[in-house]
Specification:
This protein has helices at residues 93-102, 123-128, 147-158, 173-184, 199-203, and strands at residues 4-11, 14-19, 37-38, 52-55, 59-61, 64-66, 77-78, 163-166, 188-191, 205-210, 213-218, 226-230, 240-243. The strands form 4 sheets. A 4-stranded antiparallel β-sheet has the order 2-1-4-7, covered by helices on one side. It has a 4-stranded parallel β-sheet with strand order 8-13-12-9, covered by helices on one side. The protein is an alpha/beta fold and 256 residues long. β1 and β2 form a beta hairpin. The chain is built from 5 helices and 13 strands. It is globular and about 55 Å long. Mean pLDDT is 75; it is low at 106-114, 230-239 and 243-256. The N and C termini lie far apart (44 Å).
């Protein structure tokens, strides 16, 4: 059976469900990640924004992506959560395996990690046991990064954890994130917030007066997906923020 994977997100202040990038329908047509997915609403009240769900079907329907009806609901199962609110929320084993294969985590028993503090059965341990996610090297990518920091950043991007990279200009922060997004098949958008007169309003938007009230005017450049910025403004919306001030030793940053 073919499974599809979607996630909850906030778009212009409204909760939405969108398909993860890199998926195709049975006929090979790419799944449109800009369309809203019609799926079960009740289960979404139990899990935080950013949760990834698995569904058993997905089809186009008048500007939406539809999950097939099962009785009175369009069922989906949470995948990237630590525990389930109800037993009925637990996804089928085949769906879990399909998701692990989709994100590039081997379902086979990985080789023991050289880091004894990391269990080979953990998500991080399985990332470390997958050759596809091996750290960059001088010979291969032109720069290197500490392997522990590489895998932690890889895990954070995949799990949509807000992250700050600190380092001087030219240490490879942007190139590092672009490489990780490429490995994971995630879109990466880069904004130079240092060149904006007002980075917050330029990236997110501003409140404006309209007909006697206040409305939020969203920035036209606002995009979905992971993106980076060259500013110390830490914004809570699944992004990596780069700081150009070297607040940690240079050796802790990837070197060109």
């Amino acid at each position: 059976m073919k499974y599809y994977f979607v996630k909850t997100l906030e778009d212009k202040g409204r909760p939405r469900v969108r398909a993860l990038s890199g998926q195709t329908f049975e006929d090979g047509t790419p799944v449109d990640t800009t369309l809203n997915v019609r799926a079960d609403r009740e289960i979404r009240t139990h899990y935080p924004m950013g949760t990834v769900y698995g569904v058993k079907s997905l089809s186009m329907s008048a500007g939406f992506l539809d999950v097939e009806l099962d009785g009175d609901s369009r069922p989906m199962w949470p995948l990237n959560v630590r525990s389930y609110k109800l037993d009925s929320h637990k996804p089928p084993i085949e769906m879990v395996k399909a998701y692990e294969e989709f994100i590039g985590v081997s379902t086979k028993t990985p080789k023991p990690s050289t880091d004894r503090s990391v269990s080979v059965k953990s998500y991080l341990g399985r990332l470390m046991g997958n050759k596809r996610f091996a750290p960059p090297t001088i010979e291969g990518q032109g720069f290197f990064v500490n392997s522990s920091q590489w895998y932690l950043l890889l895990r954070n991007v995949q799990n949509q954890v807000n992250t700050i990279l600190l380092g001087a200009t030219g240490t490879g922060k942007t190139e590092l994130v672009r490489l990780i997004c490429d490995r994971l098949g995630i879109e990466c958008h880069v904004y130079d917030m240092g060149a904006m007169l007002d980075p917050i309003s330029g990236l997110l938007g501003v409140h404006r007066l309209s007909e006697g009230g206040s409305v939020f005017d969203y920035a036209k450049s606002r995009s979905r997906g992971w993106f980076s910025s060259t500013s110390c403004h830490a914004l809570r919306c699944r992004r990596i923020t780069f700081c150009s001030r070297a607040l940690i030793p240079a050796g802790s940053c990837p070197l060109k």
